[in-house]
Structure formats: C-alpha cells, structure tokens
Specification:
- The complex is a heterodimer of chains A (188) and B (390).
- Chain A has 188 residues and is an alpha/beta fold.
- Chain A has a single domain (2-176), classed as Pyruvate-ferredoxin oxidoreductase, PFOR, domain III (Pyruvate-ferredoxin Oxidoreductase, domain 3, 3-Layer(aba) Sandwich).
- Chain A has six helices and six strands.
- Chain A has helices spanning 14-27, 101-108, 117-125, 131-142, 147-157, 160-176, and strands at 2-9, 31-37, 46-54, 69-72, 92-96, 111-115.
- In chain A, α3 (117-125) packs across α4.
- Chain A is globular, with a radius of gyration of 15 Å.
- With 390 residues, chain B is of the alpha/beta class.
- Chain B folds into two domains: 3-242, Thiamin diphosphate (ThDP)-binding fold, Pyr/PP domains (Rossmann fold), CATH 3.40.50.970; 250-389, Rossmann fold, CATH 3.40.50.
- Chain B has helices at 7-17, 34-43, 57-69, 80-95, 120-124, 138-155, 180-186, 213-242, 268-278, 298-305, 325-334, 359-369; strands spanning 3-6, 22-25, 50-53, 74-78, 101-106, 131-134, 159-164, 172-175, 250-254, 260-264, 285-290, 292-294, 310-315, 342-347, 375-377.
- In chain B, the strands form three sheets. Chain B has a seven-stranded mixed sheet with strand order 3-2-4-5-7-6-12, sandwiched between helices. Chain B has a six-stranded mixed sheet with strand order 9-11-10-13-14-15, with helices on both faces.
- The model of chain B has no long low-confidence stretch (mean pLDDT 96).
- Classes of the chains: A alpha/beta (188), B alpha/beta (390).
Chain lengths: 188, 390
C-alpha cells in the first residue's frame, strides 16, 4: 500500500487531483481510494486530500497519517505548520515551485523534486492549474502506474479542447521529467 | 470491471437506476452532491423524472410525501440540520405509511457548527417510524439503496439509507454499479394500493380520535417489527442477482468463540477490520456491524453477543445527559441472556474526528484496564477543557 497526501489551496483542484490519481490506479486494475479532509470551503484556504493505492481492496477509511509522498500544489504551503507532519523518514516531496529541488531538499530534510507546474500548465492549459503537471510528474518519477493510466483518468473527467490540452501537457512532461528517479519505493 | 466513482455520484446513479418519478431536494449545505448529480442526469436526459428544486428540506420531504402518496416512486436526500428541519414531515411520511426512500448523508448537528460526519442527525429521528439501514461502505450504499425501494414498497414504510457523510459520500473508490436490467428485474414498477386518485377518492392523514390512535400506533410499530423479514429477504434476493450481500440485519466478523465484541454502525467498521486483521489477539475479538437499526434486531443481537464477556458499543452520536443511544438498546436486548457481557459505551469520531486504526488497540486497552464501563466520549482530549467540564 502506498499512501499519498496532497496539499493545496481551495480552487486549485486539490480533491480533483486526488480523485484523478485514485482513478488512474483503478483503471490499472489496482485498488485506489481518494478522499478530502475538507476544511473551510473557500478559495485560497489550505486544503488536504488523501490517496491510497494498493494491490488489494483496502477497507480502512482513516486519514493518511504517515504518507510516503507529499504532493504540494503551492510552494507557499511549505511554510504552513503541519504540512510535513507524519511524512515517513524516507518520504519524498513533489512540489509546484520555482525554487530548485536541492535548495528545498536541504531546507525540508527530505528528498524533493520541484517543478514549475504553474508555468507548465499556463503554457498548455492557459491557466496555472498545477494538477496535471504534478500528477504526470509523480507517475513518471515513481513508476507507480503507467502514464497511460493518468490519461485514461483524464479522459473520464474531461472532454473536448480541455482534454486535448491536458493530454498534450502529459506528453510534454514525459520529455521533461527523469523517468524512474523515485521508483522502488517501499510499501507501507 | 469496477468503476472509479465517488460515493455521492454512485448513489445518484443508483437512484437513477431505480427509476424514481419524483425527486425533490434542497440543494444548499448541508446537502451533498447526490442530488446535484441526479439533477444533472435529469438535465442530460439520462433520467426521466420530475426534479423539484425546493426552498427548504421541509418542502423537499413534503413534495416527496405528496408524490409518493399519489403513487410515484419518490426520493430525497439530506443531512444534519436538513434532517432536523424535515423532522415533522418525516413523522408524517412514516405515520401515513408512505413508501419512499431517502439518503441521510450522516453529518453532525449544530451547535457547534460542524459539516463533518457522525450519526447525530439520523439518530435524532430514530423514533420517527422509518426503517433505518446503515451502510458500511459505498458498495453497500449502492446495493442498499436498491433494496430500500423494494423493502419500502413491500412494507409500505419509508426507508432511510444512512451513508456516512464525507467518509463515504466524498470518497472515490472502485465500485460495481448494477445494470439497468438487474435493477428492473429486482424492482417492479411501483404500485401503491392506497394512491391518491381523483377517480377513487380517499382521505389520507385525517384526524384520528383517541378511539383509534393507540391502534394506529400499534399497527405502525408492528409493521416495523415485521419489516425485519423484508430487510433480510431483500438482501438475500439482491445477492442472488449481483452476488453481493450487504449484511441483512447485522453481520459478524471474527472468531465464533471471541470474548470481546465490538459493535458499531456505518463506515468505521472497515478501519476496525483492517486493524483486527493485523492484531495478534484477533482470535479473542469479534466485530459486529449493525446494519438495521430500525427495526431493532433484538434476537440477532442476542445471537451475535452470546458468550461474550465484554461488548464495546462504538457510538457515533449521543443523548446528552444520558449517554450512548445504541448501547442502551443493545443492553435491553441482552438483558435476557443468562450471561450478560459487560457493556462499554464509547462515542468515537464525533463531528468528523478521525477514527484511526489505533482505535482498535485503545479499545482493547480500555477493557484490559477494567474500571468504568459507562458512557464516555472515548476520543475526547479532556485536557482541552476547563477542569469543571472534564
């Protein structure tokens, strides 16, 4: 079982990101579970969602306390108390940020990959919505699921021009991100 | 092949498969997006149904009542304060013996204001005369919703399908949706014998004098008691269609000769089961998932608890000044056993407090410590309170 916690801000598609990742797992025939920890439902407020991916059906519905990965949709959230809480010692952080990975890794004491997801998304989608960039990067880094599982999940949720742009973005990211850099993560 | 669906979406699609003719709902918080998804299915032409967007939950229940009384298959959904605002109508629906189904997406009741999950809403209307079924997961929510229509229409009693808010309604997971043919085969078109019809006028909801009121109450009570059979039959017959049981009146997991039982309702059982599976002392423990709270299954609970030395009832609501609601009734059910287990009444997960895997061990520790087995809010951190409130 792999547990992931996604931190974002209201309006960034935090829950949608979690749903997409779990959907990708389910499309692959694995068990995927995603749910939000809703706080105040307003734009800009810090929000959290959880994802579990496993080979077998999981029955637990408790919040993810010790994630193997954090996906941070907004770098300013790194300053919010509690964001790193419970991250496994070998846990890794994928963050949407303009700062470089090594600087952040040193500051946070964990392995970090930083990508400028806002500008990548701006380039392809015309809006700074970091989800697709982060999720595609996450799957390419970890090899947890094939990228095609994400595109299948995107097809379930979006259509028309928006879908096409997202698919182009995923395609581009496969060229920009080192495949398998985080592969071989240990299951909890 | 299971589909990735969020609970609310799965329930909406399931309701649509049941071919409701009238859906009435108030779309504002504390509503979930079950009704939003149904509205979309109607707008997209995928569901032929009169969708009535009303101005309050009181009206939502009233419209559903009227529609069902006129012979339509009716549906509504609500939660929390919405259930409370409906309460007067909920009693009327049940007392008039109107068959209909609603989903209660269980949430806490204000004040303090909370949007998160517990069972205070549905427990507050346990005496309204509805059948109440509590779902352990979203698959059960799908299957129970379909069964609920058959139970309602055969017993002429309304059914409240209780589905934990957020922990089920907002969770996406792999789910099996039945086919339209499967549902159609299980659920024949609704024929209401007492339907209001201007060609054969009858009155419904007239004044009942003391000469008949106690008899009406007796008959309502007896109808609920008798409904237990239909709850079990619907689960068995639906299992014959799709291969899945949802637990009838209750379901038991774990060792037959366990000393300790843990009984609860709703979605925290999944977490307890995962903890149970990993635990070295699992042979000593059995887990009891109470699915049917109304009618209350006295005999099934007695059977499930026979031989236990300790029984922990994990409450998801409380009656302030008294304590656990479910444990009081369980205690009554077990009072005629020759050996009654020691009953612990612990409220957990109130207002959305996370129920972690560790709860299982904490419960076993509390039993091992002995001492007070009365009611308490088990996961409350009393150090947060001034001394006089502890």
């Amino acid at each position: 079982m792999i547990e992931i916690r996604i931190h974002g801000r209201g309006g960034q598609g935090n829950v949608v990101g979690a749903y997409l990742l779990a959907t990708a797992a389910i499309v692959e025939g694995k068990f995927g579970q995603a749910f939000p920890a809703f706080g105040a439902e307003r734009r800009g407020a810090p929000v959290v969602a959880f994802v579990r991916i496993a080979e077998q059906h999981l029955r637990r519905r408790s919040q993810v306390q010790n994630p193997a990965f954090l996906i941070i949709q907004d770098q300013a959230l790194l300053h919010v108390p509690g964001v790193l809480d419970g991250l496994r010692d070998d846990g890794r952080i994928l963050v949407n940020s303009n700062l470089d990975s090594d600087t952040l890794a040193e500051r946070l004491g964990h392995e970090v990959v930083s990508i400028p997801a806002d500008s990548w998304s701006q380039e392809f989608l015309g809006r700074p919505l970091p989800n697709t960039s982060l999720l595609a990067t996450f799957l390419i880094l970890t090899q947890l699921l094939p990228v095609e599982a994400l595109t299948a999940a995107l097809r379930e949720r979006f259509k028309g021009k928006l879908l096409e742009r997202n698919l182009n973005l995923v395609e581009e990211i496969t060229q920009r991100v080192p495949a398998g850099l985080w592969s071989g993560v240990e299951h909890a | 092949m299971p589909k990735a669906l969020e609970g609310s979406q799965a329930i909406a699609r399931t309701v649509a498969l049941c071919r409701p003719q009238v859906v009435a709902a108030y779309p504002i918080t504390p509503q979930t997006h079950i009704v939003e998804n149904i509205a979309r299915l109607v707008a997209d032409g995928e569901l032929e149904c009169e969708y009535v967007s009303v101005e309050s939950e009181f009206s939502a229940a009233s419209v559903a009542l009227g529609a069902a009384a006129a012979g339509s298959r009716a549906y509504t959904a609500s939660a929390s304060q919405g259930i409370l605002l409906m309460t007067e109508v909920l009693y009327n629906i049940a007392g008039l013996r109107i068959p209909m189904v609603m989903t209660c997406a269980n949430r806490a009741v204000s004040a303090p204001l909370s949007i998160w999950n517990d069972h205070q809403d549905s427990m507050s209307v346990r005496d309204a005369g509805w059948i109440q079924l509590y779902c352990a997961d979203n698959q059960e929510a799908i299957d129970t919703t379909i069964q609920a229509y058959r139970i309602a229409e055969r017993t002429e009693l309304p059914v409240m399908v209780c589905v934990d808010g957020f922990s089920l309604t907002h969770t996406l997971e792999p789910l099996e949706l039945p086919t339209q043919e499967q549902v159609d085969g299980f659920l024949p078109p609704f024929q209401f014998q007492r339907a209001l019809d201007p060609r054969q006028p009858i009155s419904m909801g007239t004044l009942v004098s003391p000469d008949f009121y106690p008899e009406a109450r007796h008959s309502h009570h007896q109808a609920l008691i008798n409904a237990a059979e239909e709850v079990v039959a619907a689960d068995d017959d639906w299992a014959a269609v799709c291969g899945r049981h949802s637990g009838g009146l209750l379901k038991v997991e774990g060792s037959e000769d366990a000393e300790i039982g843990i009984l609860t309702l709703g979605s925290i059982m999944g977490t307890l089961l995962d903890a149970h599976e990993q635990h070295p002392d699992q042979g000593k423990v059995k887990l009891i998932q109470l699915r049917c709270f109304r009618p209350f299954p006295f005999e099934a609970i007695k059977e499930a608890c026979r031989g236990l030395q300790h029984l922990v009832v994990l409450e998801r609501a409380l009656s302030p000044g008294s304590g656990g609601i479910v444990s009081n009734e369980v205690q009554a059910a077990l009072s005629s056993l020759e050996q009654t287990p020691r009953i612990y009444s612990f409220a957990v997960g109130l207002g959305g407090r996370d129920v972690p895997l560790e709860l299982y061990q904490h419960v076993l520790d509390a039993i091992a410590r002995g001492g007070d087995n009365g009611f308490r809010v088990f996961d409350a951190d009393l150090s947060k309170l001034p001394p006089e409130d502890r």
